[in-house]
Amino acid sequence: MSDHPLDAIFDRFISSPSIFKNHEVLRPSHIPDKLPHRDYEIQFLGKALGSALRNNRPSNIFLYGKTGTGKTIVSKYVTKYLQERANSIGKNIIVSLLNCVEIDTDYRVLARLCDLIGEPVPFTGLPTDEVFQRFKAKLDSKKQLLIVVFDELDKLHQKSGDNVLYQLTRINTDLKKAQVSLVCITNDLSFKETLDPRVRSSLSEEELVFKPYNSLQLEDILAERAKEGFHEGVLTEGVISLCAALAAQEHGDARRALDLLRVAAEIAERENESKVLQSHVRKASKQIEKDTIQEALISLPVQTKLVLWAVYVLEKSTLKVITTGDIYKVYLELCKTTGLDPITPRRANSLLNELSMLGVVNTKVVSMGRYGRTTKVSLSVSPRQTRNILCEDFYIKKVSDFNAQTLLGKD
DNA sequence: TGTCCACTGGAACGTACGGCTT
DNA sequence: AAGCCGTACGTTCCAGTGGACA
User: Fold this and answer.
1) CA at A22, C1' at C7: how many angstroms apart?
2) What does the alpha-carbon distance between residue A40 and residue A44 come to, in Å, rounded to a whole number?
3) Based on CB atoms within 10 Å of each CB, which residue in A24, A205, A273, A334 is the most buried?
4) Mean pLDDT, consecutive 10-residue segments, chain A of 411 residues?
5) What's domain A39-209's architecture?
């Protein structure tokens, strides 16, 4: 017991005090008591939803703003307190926050809402219409207000259209006891134009745009959280402002700023330092970028990985410009070697577009006149990292030393 | 000025699967 | 057991297109 190989490491955790006082406070999901620089937004939403306490159905609300501008947290902040106050006077308000990145079909939206009001439904098997009927019946079984917050609504709309939105905006005419209000959040400013006009007008009875934070405002936000999150004096001079400045470069994203600060402190702790230094923040910045890419790549389906590998292989070749045609040629060869059934060019093209959405590759549609119209593709993440991550895959391993040169030479 | 390449990207459809209702 | 339903992944078909070249 005295000479366990982990003793040295574990002892360090026991003996030296943690940098963190409360780790949770530094997560973007935490809702603090104060939200600096969002007073107006909080008041606005509070006024809009407050009418619920007076038995009126609140207007439907549209919230715009880029990522990390506080849309989600302000919504949570306001609805949480609204629920508390409603409970204290015996009113029944249910709030459902739906993240449309995960809940991206009509069926899933309704299934989630059903779960919430105590009408569990299977995750597949029922007609969507049936789920809606059940939801409506259960909801109307007593007097209550349901506030549905659609976070990143554009993702739901993109995949499944506005069917469910239409139904939900109309539902109040059918309900006798219960009422439904909608809060829609999106970071796509032009999104509203793509909605069905009927849905659009009833969804945006009220509207609010969240402006990005500037560097100073981000500092305030970080300072506020740091008070609770860290022991006193562990953040050295300039750490907070560096986090703020780095995040402000990326359109004033508060989530990013918080992540930077938290990860920087984690790195400091791992390095057995008692204080967080600016160098830790820089390391954190690199680390976060790396993690994001890794997460995106590792979970890709095999076919997508193979298409990406084709891009990688071509990037390594002497070719100056990579087009979809070349990628497909290489892809077919990769399929031969790995023994996988190839997908069609059409499908490969879709996968390439998905990779572009993820920010893994750059794509640009170009016309080469006589020589047709195609898409120029390039890797937008480090090739070395792409290789390291993809080569963990069973199939990619088989083609890890594939050389595009011979193939291109033949043509 | 018109042609025509090498695709792009929308739409409809097919298949496999888990899981429901009757 | 039969008949649906939603989801994921893929195919087939094909009209549309930007711009270098004859």
Assistant:
1) 41
2) 6
3) A334
4) 78 75 89 93 96 91 91 96 94 92 89 90 87 93 94 84 87 93 88 79 88 94 93 90 93 92 93 90 93 88 94 90 93 92 94 91 92 92 92 91 71 42
5) 3-Layer(aba) Sandwich (3.40)
pLDDT, position A410: 43
Options 3.30.200.20, 1.10.357.10, 1.10.10.10, 3.40.50.1820; CATH of A300-410: 1.10.10.10
For A213-297, CATH gives 1.10.8.60
**How far, rounded to the nearest angstrom, does the alpha carbon of residue A278 sit from its chain's CA centroid?**
27
- Which residues fall within 8 angstroms of residue A43, CB to CB, at 6 or more apart? none
* pTM for this prediction: 0.85
Q: Which residues 299-338 of A interface with strand B at a CB distance below 7 A?
A: 323-326
Q: Which of A316, A259, A312 lies closest to A286 in space, CA to CA?
A: A259
Cα A7 from Cα A49, distance rounded (Å): 55
| Digit-coded pLDDT (tens) for A223-244 | 999 999 998 888 998 999 999 9
The answer to whether A160 CB sits below 7 Å from nucleic acid chain B is: no
